[in-house]
């Protein structure tokens, strides 16, 4: 296995600042982040609007979190419900916010999390699922799912020439892959993916890319993926 090589210029498509978690992790791995986000995330629901829904949950209910952004949108109140998360990065964000995680998706995907919840949630249970605008809401028999939209994703105008100035590109979501697809076509880049759904999106829109998936769905693992 190759160790991270100093000087690799890596395009960060995620919406964050220079001191964001992915940029920070890339620098720690000896790489040079080139920040050019392709999406913009806007919070559309005030945390105060979630106070009552959260406090109404009991110990037989669930709070489902599928991104660190969803955790950031929560008010800081006591939560009695069991907490389910989609992956390690979301788990870390939830625990940092004082939440006790009862379930983490076994495969790092939302589909895996909902499948397990379908098995665990009893009939009559309630689920609060604060979500992104584009996130799909599943149907679980006998379970009442409240899925308020807490943030919206908008396409950002970005400098498409960035693909010619880097050797690798990072993706933390399938939506970012779809937005960046045109800029990627024809490029012989290494595409670093945070998880299986993102890898599948890359294979679908840009099969010529060298896609490499993180060992676990965290920004640290994404930044440390071995490069050729």
Question: How is this structure best described in words?
Answer:
The chain is of the alpha/beta class. The protein folds into two domains: 98 residues, Rossmann fold (3-Layer(aba) Sandwich); 109 residues, Rossmann fold (3-Layer(aba) Sandwich). The protein contains eight helices and 13 strands. Strands 2-1-11-12-13 form a five-stranded parallel sheet, with helices on both faces. α6 packs parallel to α7. The model has no long low-confidence stretch (mean pLDDT 92).
CATH topology category name of the largest domain: Rossmann fold
The averaged pLDDT comes out at 92
Stretches where pLDDT is under 50 for at least 5 consecutive residues are none
SSE class: alpha/beta
Classified by CATH, the class of the largest domain is Alpha Beta
Sheet-strand content, in percent, reads 15-25%
* Gyration radius over CA: 18 Å
| Helix coverage percent | 25-40%
The dominant shape is: elongated
The largest sheet has its strands arranged as 2-1-11-12-13
Question: Total number of β-strand segments?
Answer: 13
> What's the number of domains?
2
Enumerate how many helices there are, as a single number: 8
Biggest sheet descriptor: 5 strands, parallel
Distance between the termini: 10 Å
The CATH architecture term of the largest domain is: 3-Layer(aba) Sandwich
Q: Note the run of SSEs as H and E.
A: EHEEHEHEHEHEEEEEHEHEH
């Amino acid at each position: 296995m190759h160790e991270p090589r100093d000087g690799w210029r890596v395009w960060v498509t995620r919406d964050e600042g220079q001191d964001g978690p992915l940029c920070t992790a890339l620098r720690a791995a000896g790489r040079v982040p080139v920040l050019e986000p392709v999406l913009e995330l806007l919070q559309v629901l005030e945390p105060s609007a979630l106070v009552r829904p959260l406090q109404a949950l009991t110990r037989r209910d669930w709070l489902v979190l599928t991104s660190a952004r969803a955790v950031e949108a929560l008010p800081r109140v006591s939560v009695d419900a069991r907490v389910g998360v989609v992956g390690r990065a979301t788990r870390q964000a939830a625990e940092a916010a004082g939440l006790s995680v009862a379930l983490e998706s076994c495969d790092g995907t939302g589909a895996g999390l909902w499948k397990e919840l379908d098995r665990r949630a009893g009939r009559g249970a309630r689920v609060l699922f604060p979500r992104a605008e584009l996130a799909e809401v599943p149907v679980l028999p006998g379970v009442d799912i409240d899925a308020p939209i807490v943030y919206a994703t908008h396409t950002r105008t970005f400098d498409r020439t960035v693909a010619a100035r880097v050797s690798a590109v990072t993706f933390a979501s399938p939506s970012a892959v779809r937005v960046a697809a045109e800029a990627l076509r024809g490029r012989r880049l290494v595409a670093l993916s945070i998880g299986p759904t993102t890898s599948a999106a890359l294979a679908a829109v840009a099969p010529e890319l060298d896609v490499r998936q993180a060992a676990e769905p965290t920004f640290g693992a994404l930044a440390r993926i071995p490069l050729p």
